[in-house]
Here is the input.
Amino acid sequence: MISLPPFYSTLHGEMIHGDAADAMASLAPGTANLVMTSPPFALIRKKAYGNEAPDDYLQWFRPFAAEIYRILDDSGSFVIDIGGSWIPGTPTRSLYHFKLLIMLCEEYGFHLAQEFYWWNPSKLPTPAEWVTIRRLRAKDAVNTVWWLSKTPWPKANNRRVLQPYSQAMRTLITNGYRPKVRPSGHDISPHFTKDNGAAIPPNLLAIPNTESNSSYLRYCKERGIQPHPARFPTDLPEFFIRLTTDADDLVIDPFAGSCATGEVAERLCRRWLCIDSDASYLEGAKGRFEAASSTDSTSGRESYSVPRPSVLWNGMPTEPLPADGGRTRSSARTDA
Here is the structure.
């Protein structure tokens, strides 16, 4: 799969210790079906894992952008979780992550399939100066997640990530609804009250990042390994792996950290490749695969009204994703 020696391997994938751009350069064009990653953000305060300043961020990301585009299959997806940043000394926001999106699309040829927003309900009120001390701003609790692709038609199917109906929708289905044009101008057809068993999810992903006693953390503690300080919960990559890939597709995370993407890919029988420049983080990431149970402990998620992504998923799909990304419209209705 890659010319570099693996740091660690499993049935479906490998960890690679090295520079992400160099590692991806050894892959053949069109190899990856999904690149799912969360690179270091352009934060004011430097983190142990390293991060670039907002003014330098686009130039720093260019070699990675070029390699990701090259190795991505024409029907594949590139999903990047990237948080915003504040301008030093003022309660105003940097535009670096929006500039990155524009650069990826206008200079490298990516298409924006859809923008998502990851809301972490458990996030602490930061930045303290503007939120808890001067009380000038609300806490920053949402990351942008750009879903990009090489064509306007990446393969995907939202049936893979359905969610339970809300109580209001269940009541509407039970009591019925008179089709009519709403004041907004939307024409609500009779099909609106059909019970399809589940709801299509929104592009707001409510996932509390409350991991505190997972097998990964226990593994690190038992061996004196410092856990990666900026892990995303496995529910986040799981949503996009289910949405955009089939079994045996290749999922790559070039900024793998604790290898949460690899854990999900392994569980869902996708081939995977996790790359990181810090060997200590990869050493701890072994705990996601060697422990008896590698499921995140996300206690408290049941208290939120927005279900976690893929909550209704209970098996492998019986049919593959459409190879043309849905360009050819089926003659049958496509209710959920």
The chain has a mean pLDDT of 86.
